[in-house]
Amino acid sequence: GEQVEQLPSILRVQEGSSASINCSYEDSASNYFPWYKQEPGENPKLIIDIRSNMERKQIQELIVLLDKKAKRFSLHITDTQPGDSAMYFCAARGGSNYKLTFGKGTLLTVTP
Amino acid sequence: DPKIIQKPKYLVAVTGSEKILICEQYLGHNAMYWYRQSAKKPLEFMFSYSYQKLMDNQTASSRFQPQSSKKNHLDLQITALKPDDSATYFCASSQELGAAETLYFGSGTRLTVL
User: Fold this and answer.
1) Nearest Cβ partner of A100 from B42, B103, B106?
2) Could you give the percent of chain A with pLDDT greater than 90?
3) Nearest to A100 among B45, B55, B106 (CB)
4) What is the pLDDT at residue A97?
């Protein structure tokens, strides 16, 4: 089945700077790559996603890049704010298996 | 106003007992799922259902039995509970069981097995 690796596991940045999280996947048939944000005690919430027919997608301060040849995708948060502090999960799904496979998560802390 | 309702929010059980986790979604979705989150395995897929039919089961143990009595319900029965079953169990849903369908999570049931 699909395997998703996510790095780094912990990320600490200063307010106003950028934060980047990288993920890689194994199944070349995967075609859907969402990102979820989870705050303590809360459920994961979708913040942005990208499909395999795109290489780049931006929603406000969130940018997702997809490199299908390298089987890598990444999340970039520009101009980070303390409210961006949370756990972030990448995921991949596609092919004949509809299971959404998650990375192990990145704990992002944005310091004032 | 949550559209995927999970009950209870917290659950404490003793080893060997049986519990049922409730999930109802009011998004009009046709696919529902169970995921488990623990310190060891964040967001681990367990089951997927489409139109009340089991589509995928990634849980090795038969102690975990999903039950779909209605189209918008997918409960999870866990028997012979073990301390290792302690985790937060998230119910989720999507419009259809498609590769590019957005997945929405419920608020979770945090299970502690003593």
Assistant:
1) B103
2) 85
3) B45
4) 64
